[in-house]
């Protein structure tokens, strides 16, 4: 079973439990980004999460954005990298860049 399958099963189980969720998916990387395209992070409305989109570099920022996505329902694309002013704040100092698609899961 793949890591993606595991995360999607977690999301399915959480939806079945009535949790409100967001799903973050790596859609593009450049340089030395630590997770490949297609990696997932599932986040519930209480801040619980499973998976990884960056090996710990930007998860905190993605989880914070997920709270807004869960409430509003408006999907968004997040971009992090050393050329971005948030690079040092979120810790993606490895030289890579990453784009993450964040959407609410019904």
TrEMBL record:
<feature type="domain" description="XdhC- CoxI">
    <location>
        <begin position="14"/>
        <end position="81"/>
    </location>
</feature>
<dbReference type="InterPro" id="IPR052698">
    <property type="entry name" value="MoCofactor_Util/Proc"/>
</dbReference>
<dbReference type="InterPro" id="IPR003777">
    <property type="entry name" value="XdhC_CoxI"/>
</dbReference>
<protein>
    <submittedName>
        <fullName>XdhC family protein</fullName>
    </submittedName>
</protein>
<dbReference type="Pfam" id="PF02625">
    <property type="entry name" value="XdhC_CoxI"/>
</dbReference>
């Amino acid at each position: 079973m793949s890591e993606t399958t595991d995360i999607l099963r977690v999301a399915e189980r959480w939806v079945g439990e009535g949790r409100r969720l967001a799903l973050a998916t790596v859609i593009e990387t450049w340089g030395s980004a630590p997770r490949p395209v297609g990696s997932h992070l599932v986040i519930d409305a209480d801040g619980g999460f499973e998976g990884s989109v960056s090996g710990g570099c930007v998860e905190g920022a993605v989880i914070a954005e997920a709270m807004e996505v869960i409430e509003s329902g408006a999907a968004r694309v997040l971009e992090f990298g050393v050329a971005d002013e948030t690079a040092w704040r979120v810790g993606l100092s490895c030289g890579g860049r990453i784009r993450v698609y964040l959407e609410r899961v019904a």
